[in-house]
Amino acid sequence: MKRLLIPIAAVAMVLSGAAHSEAPDPLPSWNDGPTKGAIVGFVEKVTKEGGPDYVPPTDRIATFDNDGTLWVEKPAYTQLIFAIDRVKALAPEHPEWKNKQPFKAAIEGDMKTLAASGKKGIAELVMASHAGMTPAQFQTIVGDWLAATKDPRFQRKYTELVYQPMLELLAYLRDNGFTTYIVSGGGIEFVRNFSEPVYGIPPDQVVGSSIKTKYEVVDGEPTVMRLPEMNFIDDKTGKPIGITQHIGQRPLAAFGNSDGDFEMLQWTTAGEGPRFGMIVHHTDAEREYAYDRDSEVGRLDKALDAAAENGWVVVDMKNDWGQIFPSKE
Q1: What is the mean pLDDT of the chain?
Q2: Domains and CATH numbers, the chain
């Protein structure tokens, strides 16, 4: 029997091809399909040097909403839950709150009355419970609360209820030369507390709502104090404004989950050249939550209707995500 001789160069080519084909999937928690394909296709298109749609790294800006896009926002926004806990902790110092709404509802855990107070009532709660301290003091309070508080349904810390597929997407984009920003309706200092350790996004790449601050010298020490007055609301039409003020250029890609992100998606994808818009649609009541048009938290109605017309990719959480949260350690 004759021995089959294979040139060493040919063996090397075969092994090289095998290694290439077995390269790790950068998005393992995303099920194969049109949604995952659209993400990968867009990234490959804008990063292919010499290609007609190539975009230099300096222009590869990707903006992400936080609540409902990167972490859980049900049954209430995490920062609202924090604000309620702060009001309860501060209540002994404010006896007048026992008979004053929305503080009375917060102290008693009356979420129905609190919801009925609307954005005005919630803003009043947030301002009263988040002011009267320096940003550093506020960061410490937020950090301690996040470290000690668990979501009642999942019995996990809120910083563990982030979406594994979105963590992979953030890393995938950064590995391909994108700069990732959070653009949240939540408080900028609240989100900055955990943005880097949880998402790999440094504090200076967080855009969010803010309260007014005042510079003053206290006991000879220069300091900045947080005031109980709203400065900027980074939601809806505020998001393009916040992006312009903080980032200074239109994003190449934007990711959201609700009507609060509509203007950010609209403005991003109206730019010249290749653009990408994506909506996370909560469709998995078993592993997370299912909601859209009728939800008071994270309502998705107008943006869902506009997705097809604007070419935005809609993620079906139940079918597109093989895993929702990171595995427990």
Answers
A1: 92
A2: 26-75+156-320 (3.40.50.1000)
